[in-house]
Here is the input.
Amino acid sequence: MNYILFDDYSWENLLPLTFTRPVSEIRMGILTIREKWEKRLQTTCSYLTQDYLAEKYPLNTESQNILINGAVVPGREMVNHLHQLTNNQALVYRNEIIAARLTEEKIDDFYDKKLRDIDIIELQNENIVKLNYPWEIFKYNGKAIEEDLSLITENRESKTLSSTNNLLGENPIFLEPGAKVEFATLNTTFGPIYIGKNAEIMEGSVIRGGMALCENAVLKMGTRIYGPTTIGPECKVGGEVNNSVLFAFTNKGHDGFLGNSVLGEWCNLGADTNNSNLKNNYATVKMWNYAEEKFIDTHQQYCGLIMGDHCKCGINTMFNTGTVIGVNANIFGEGFPRNFVPSFSWGGAKGFKEYQPDKAFDVANRVMEKKNKSLDDKEKEILREIFQRTGKFRQF
Here is the structure.
């Protein structure tokens, strides 16, 4: 069977994180949603996403296909439901399509919402997790760490943890080959701790699970982590982090606080960058929503920073509660910048100007070269499209 992960309306609600990726490429827990599905199904998946993302994230169709909502986090029950689908059947939960089995000819109709003559199977009393908004990534991260840990470590043994570490709690600690942890305090009372391949926790770090430190990621000396937190592959983190998710290749290498936040890929927070995650009046936080083009109530009391890919900020940057930063923004200077910064913006509290794509590409290439990577033509075209789509927000 051929499996395809499709984007629905949640793609727009999850902007700016999804400007550069399908929803299924969001990391939550240890793995991305796509990686979770592929491990559950023991196969590879392709994508049905926005046109401008399709070259980097292509669609593969066959005579028989199962389309899965890319915002749905898989579980064993969901996999069983998929295996029971017959042709022209769809799984629906709370009026949303979760999955459908279709012939190749009907896929275009499905994405254009013209599909007819399909049998609906209503799922009842299911515990289905579906991402609809960015803050749900850190909200659901604790459960995702537990489920991913169980999925990827089944019938495997952890590398032995050094006796130099202080341990507390009964939840598991799992070390992949090459992981290094010395003179750290690891508390699993509130959740497990996963340390990926060749990842390192330096001396003096204090970790309260759940926590996932993914492949080749580093916690610098004296880092304090409050779970549930995920530090994605190749990230470098220092200071204090609480209930946050960093996707990959992103650095917060110095002191400063990051709380209830989600950072995309290739971001860098300058030394002593801090964000607020709680309003002074303890009210629920409002955040910018691209779909409605206005600030909406998150119904969350704790809500920090949402930052798209390739963003940078200077030392001592201060972000207000519920700040949303687009893609390729460069922020610096004293004072609090506005709590919605559009993509390709350059400046800070004293004002912004437009950040031209060619200059942004030069910076991105210099950053990516440090990891032996480069910004290829597909990615440049994606970023140019984002620049065009977001121009209406840059009315400085």
